[in-house]
Amino acid sequence: MTAPGDAVNAGFLAYRVASVDEGGAMGIVVTAIVGGIIGWLASIVMKTNAQMGIIANVIVGIVGSALGHYLAGVMGIAAGGLGGLLVGVAGAVLLIVILKALGVFS
């Protein structure tokens, strides 16, 4: 059984990909691409796709993925691979819900 801290360390897909030790500038490019895909999928789920551009998708995807992996770690869920992608999309959906409540998206 893993401790919640282990799940947090195993998470944060966007942070791990962008780590200087693991790829430098190429890691940042991969983070932007993965973040864009996660943000785009979340915007489709939340039906805000028409309101969000590529930059918003990337930002929501990266921040939402970090949020999802943090919350999964707090709950003791270690997510990697396809599960990590699903946790990232769920975190991005949660972020869009919060942004909708704040009036950023209608």
Features:
about 70% helix; mainly alpha; about 110 residues
Structural description of this entry:
- This protein is mainly alpha-helical and 106 residues long.
- The chain has one domain (4-99).
- The chain has helices at 4-10, 13-18, 25-45, 54-74, 82-101.
- The chain starts with a helix and ends in a 5-residue tail after the last helix.
- Residues 5-11 have low confidence and may be disordered.
Secondary structure topology:
Blueprint: H1 4-10, H2 13-18, H3 25-45, H4 54-74, H5 82-101
Short summary:
The protein is mostly helical and 106 residues long. Helix content is 71%, strand content 0%. The protein contains five helices and no strands.
- How many E strands? 0
- The H-and-E topology, N to C, reads as HHHHH
Residues in helices, as a percent range: over 70%
| Low-pLDDT stretches | 5-11
Structural shape: globular
Major beta sheet, specifics?
none
Structural class: mainly alpha
Radius of gyration: 14 Å
- Proportion of residues in β-strands: under 5%
Q: Please, how many helices?
A: 5
Taken together, the total number of domains comes to 1
Distance between the termini: 42 Å
Average pLDDT over all residues: 81
